[in-house]
Design goal:
The chain has 710 residues and is an alpha+beta fold. It is built from 15 helices and 34 strands. Strands 22-23-34-25-30-31-32 form a seven-stranded antiparallel β-sheet, with no helix packed on it. Strands 12, 16, 17, 19, 20 and 21 form a six-stranded mixed β-sheet that branches. InterPro entries: B30.2/SPRY (IPR001870), B30.2/SPRY_sf (IPR043136), Bbox_C (IPR003649), ConA-like_dom_sf (IPR013320), COS_domain (IPR017903), E3_ligase_FN3/SPRY (IPR050617), FN3_dom (IPR003961), FN3_sf (IPR036116).
Length: 710
Amino acid sequence: KVAIKGIERELICPACKELFTHPLILPCQHNICHKCVKEILFAFEDSFADGGSESSNQSSPRIRISASSMDRIDRINRSGRKRNSLTPRSTLFPCPSCQRDIDLGERGINGLFRNFTLETIVERYRQAARAAIAIMCDFCKPPPQESTKSCMDCSASYCNECFKIHHPWGTVKAQHEYVGPTTNFRPKILMCPEHEMERVNMYCEICRRPVCHLCKLGGGHANHRVTTMSTAYKTLKEKLSKDIEYLISKESQVKAHITQLDLLLKETECNSERAKQEASQSFEKLYHVLEEKKYAALRAIETSKNIRLEKLQTQVEEYQGLLENNGLVGYAQEVLKETDPSCFVQTAKQLHVRIQKATESLKSFRPAAETTFEDFVVDTAKQEDILGDLSFHSNGLEIPEINEEQCRMYNKALISWECPEKTDSADIYVLEYHKLNKEEESVTWQKTEVCGKSKVLSDLDDDSSYAFRVRGYKGSICSPWSREVILRTPPAPVFSFLFDDKCGYNNEHLQLNPRRTSVESRAGFPLLLGSERLQVGCYTTLDYIIGDTGIAKGKHFWAFSVESYSYLVKVGVVPSNKIQKLFHNTHDVTSPRYEQDSGHDSGSEDAFFDSSQPCTLVTLGMKKFFIPATPAAPKDPASRILPLPSCLGICLDCDRGRVGFYDAGRMKCLYECEVDCSGLMYPAFALMGGAAVHLEEAVTAKYREYHDDI
């Protein structure tokens, strides 16, 4: 027999932390008090009304809803249910034991089974705990007598005399079932919660719960595998008995584990005390260093004070001697009374020198010592920062490294890091960053805690450089700071647009993806048909495509990438009044340099070609970036060819009439020129041959998770 007092933890409700009262079985097979599940549902409805505030969680002192459970309020709130004063309308809540979402369905609490077995065990425990407290008869006249038996059919307790009166021989009540005194009355037949008039006689193996024949015929268990209640009873009892026998047979092993855990508890206590002593000694050393520094500083201040006071006191005495009938003046007055010339001259010569010095000092008065102690101000700012970072360092915790290749600085900043061994030994990371400003003497780091290995920041200034560093924490232990990484934000706010699939879009040569963020030129059969006159000239076509949104004013930046296999791509801007000319420009389709009928092979046509362009474009292709040939550009063609960056950016300043082309990875300007911004300006792209352009995707809070899934 199992001692009743030894199973108390199994009889405690996970919500109210008290003994179960009318326990209900949840779909996850955990138990909860009938009153507790109602209070949890009401608490969630109160949270809906209060916007999920923490104060609403205190509406019921019996229950303790964890923070992780309250995080689900926003999702449940979308159901739009409202509280009823008698019955909770909400049916979705987290199980207090396993935190799984429990959906009670349309019937709500009424659809849950009452766990009569657990209720009986709880009652036996209560009786064992209060053996001295008697259950009184419900029918005795005052004072009531102690009951001797309880009727399960009448749900009442009786003394011997009252039982005979209310259950006379030869009547139907004489056949009632009676037990010893109890306050736990349970029905003799378990009824179906969905079909209240039907008793359960089957067991659903899928849902692992008793059902009635109506549930099987047309209810929610119609297609489930069921078995008879007697078979389920026999099977489950055999399994439970075997499991209990196995655990009992392993009693020696369990006791050995308990002994080992007791030793670990003691060892943990000892080790924690030792760690406390070591930490206390470390801080005591710091205290001693600070006390020595404090004593030295105060001693230096006191010494300087004494020296200054002595100088000032001497100066006071000297000036007091200048007063009439006092000190030097009084002595001089007495010397003037001397009538013997030789004696007077002998004394007056030295005295006159002293009088002259006193006169000069009187004319240019200057204190003998400074009164301020500015030289003795102790600067502890750096030490305070160091002490603020004081924590437990462990050699076992890896130093994270910021991965510059995975970091992105666009509309927001995505900072990503990883551990060298590709392990996740830290529980949490702290990311710090600050703006680089030469004018600021002291650096103020902004701090944010991150659970993963990346963070999206949205509070950074445009056209600024920032320093980033990260460290890992595991409990109270932290790793050293990572190497600082400096990244630069875009020169202007990010401009968002898509490729325009209507204005001038040539779907025979160009292909857009469904999201209109990528365009690819088809170097296929149509291009071959357009090159039939290859033997008499070079007729090639640039296929243009523009953005679907224009810019009227301000400064804007957008970024994109060009596939490395691209043969020829032109990028830039075009004003709205020249878009039609852009798509019907005859100079795009032929180059007179190689036309047989032109009669010459000079470069003058190139100048005419460049000046006639309706838009400002730069040329990319074959993994190169070509700086346009302008008077300010280098004359050597080789110096105008740069490696093609992995990501390019364009910054358009309509107010200044300037457009710049950037290496978006380093935010470095490669080329800048003037542009006419008299009308709406649109991003423009041109492709020829095999080429592809992809617009840079905006950084969102879920950016890294989305790309990790891909």
